[in-house]
Design goal:
The chain is mainly alpha-helical and 90 residues long. The protein has one domain: Non-ribosomal Peptide Synthetase Peptidyl Carrier Protein, Chain A. It is 58% helix and 0% strand. The longest helix has 17 residues. The model has no long low-confidence stretch (mean pLDDT 87).
């Protein structure tokens, strides 16, 4: 079975949807919003990461996600896009 290829836009939209559903954020949460400043705590972030793995069918290594890559949805989508590209080329 071939894995789905996700575009950057699909990744960003999917991550945004997951985060909004975890914390009941409204449309004011954007891809550039600082997630810590918006109130995302570490427990919620763990739930977000599990939901991302399930939605996109990838496994995220501990060193893949750091404070810098988790600060905004945009940064998360960029990091996910790199992970998926690396998996596809392996």
């Amino acid at each position: 079975m071939t894995k789905k290829t996700w575009t950057y836009e699909e990744l960003e939209a999917g991550v945004l949807e997951i985060i909004r559903s975890q914390k009941q954020f409204d449309e004011s949460l954007t891809a550039q919003t600082d997630l810590a400043a918006a109130g995302l705590d570490s427990l919620t972030m763990v739930r977000v990461m599990v939901a991302i793995e399930e939605k996109f069918g990838i496994w995220l290594e501990g060193d893949t996600m750091s404070y810098e890559t988790l600060r905004t949805v945009e940064m998360m989508a960029q990091s996910l896009h790199k992970v998926i590209a690396q998996e596809a080329s392996a």
